[in-house]
Amino acid sequence: MATMQPFSAKLFHSLLIQCIAEERSPTDAEIDSVASKIWQDSHGATTGQDWLDVARGSDAHVQMINAARMAFGCHQGAVAA
Asked: I need a surface site. Which of 3, 13, 42, 48 has the fewest CB within 10 A?
């Protein structure tokens, strides 16, 4: 599965609204995209590290995926640290 690149806040909010309006769970790619945006706006902006360079399964990766799941209101399937 290809990882989506970070996107603007406007598209970020649009994606969240779309999933809620359609009453559907987000795809793994959508969760990864939101995690990427959260990373970009927080840690990535200060460290310069790209989301694609964050090791899958690392504490930082797990935290961002869980934050994205929470943004979507998904508590099941959260990744444990």
From this structure: 48
The DSSP call for residue 58 is S
Question: Rounded to an integer, what distance in angstroms lies between the CA atom of residue 18 and that of residue 26?
Answer: 9
Q: How far does Cα 11 stand from its chain's mean position?
A: 13
Which residue's structure tokens are 């609204």? 17
User: One-letter amino acid identity for 17?
Assistant: I
Which sign, positive or negative, has the C-alpha torsion 54, 59, 63, 69? positive
pLDDT digits (tens, 9 = 90+) for 34-78: 999 999 999 888 888 999 999 999 999 999 999 999 988 887 655
Task: Give this prediction's pTM.
Answer: 0.76
Cβ neighbours of residue 26 under 8 Å, at least 6 residues apart?
15, 19, 34, 72, 74
